[in-house]
Amino acid sequence: MSTARKLLFRKFYSCPESYRQFVWLNYRTTIHLRRVHCPSSLSGRHALKLKIDGSNHAEKLPKKNESQKAATGSPIADIPEDPFNFAALDEAILKTRTRLQHDLANLRGGGRMDPKVVESILVKLDKAGNQRTKLGDIATVVPKGGRSMMLIAGDQTDLKAISSALMSSSLELNPQPSPSRNPLELQIPIPPPTQESRLEAQKEASKLGEQAARGIRNARQVCKQRLKQMQQAKLARGDDIRRAEKKMEIIVEKGVVEAKGLVDAARKAAMG
Predict the structure, then answer these.
(1) Burial tier of 166 (Cβ tally within 10 Å: 0-12, 13-18, 19+)
(2) pTM over the 0.90 mark
């Protein structure tokens, strides 16, 4: 046996016994040994890879992503590998809170009214069609002071349709000609709130709060499912998954408390 062959066999027998058994199980007729890097489990030593008649008969191990996909039944690429990545959860809670703030601002309470609420009223400009346009796209509403607002239209021909939309809206507004006799302006007195309207505003605020809480719970469920998939696919340790779930609950609880605070403030404002 040549010196080079002896050196190769010497290195072969210096590998762990389990690896040598794996090599000999694949023994056929002609052995060609070449030097390759051992897996990380071999503590940095060099191993010998068996080649038989120019082809590798060693069984190919499944790729990591393929084995994980088979375990979970869904593409692993869709699962973030960091269990502490709560970007999607934070974004969902932020969207829910922003929507809640917008809807609560549209509630009428305590005799005060946001001009944006009036500008969100839909106006039917064409009697023959069903197309409606937001009032804010054809006019501007500004607070005048006291209990009134001033509407400034871009086109005088739209004033009739605007007046009809204001009177038929749920806000029960009654626009009047401007004291300055400007043909493009309308004065909008704000009617005083009644006990019935205050209670209705409180009821609507509570309903909006329930919708926000439902949205936050849905975001929590999505995040919890992601952590479960990571655990099944063994993308993270069990201790990390448990810590991530605790942190998830903290984030969700904070979102729920903030939403409740917005609802309580709106209910208080509704009573003036």
Answers:
(1) buried
(2) no
186 bridge partner residues? 151, 177
Sheet containing 185-189: give its strands across.
139-143, 148-153, 185-189, 176-177
- Closest listed residue to residue 252, CA positions, set 101, 89, 96: 89
238's enclosing H/E stretch is helix 238-270
Measured between alpha carbons, how far is 190 from 177 in angstroms, rounded to an integer? 14
What mean pLDDT is predicted for residues 78-106?
A: 87
SS3 196: helix
Tell me the pLDDT tens digit for each residue of 120-178.
Answer: 889 988 777 778 899 989 999 988 876 788 999 988 889 999 999 989 887 778 898 88
Q: Tokens 């404002």 belong to which residue?
A: 269
219 CB burial (10 A radius; 0-12, 13-18, 19+): buried
**Residue found under tokens 């006990």:** 195
Q: What are phi and psi of 146, to 5 degrees?
A: 70, -130
Look at the alpha carbons of 229, 235, 241, 244 in this order and tell me if their dihedral is positive or negative. negative
Return the residue matching tokens 């090599």.
23
For residue 263, give both structure tokens.
């609802």
Q: Who's near 116: CB < 8 A, 6+ residues apart?
A: 105, 106, 136, 141
Alpha carbon separation from 204 to 16, 30, 104 (Å, rounded): 72, 83, 9
Q: Is residue 78 very low, low, confident or very high in pLDDT (cuts 50, 70, 90)?
A: low
| Encoded tokens for 36 | 């390759």
**CA nearest 154: which of 129, 123, 112, 127?**
123
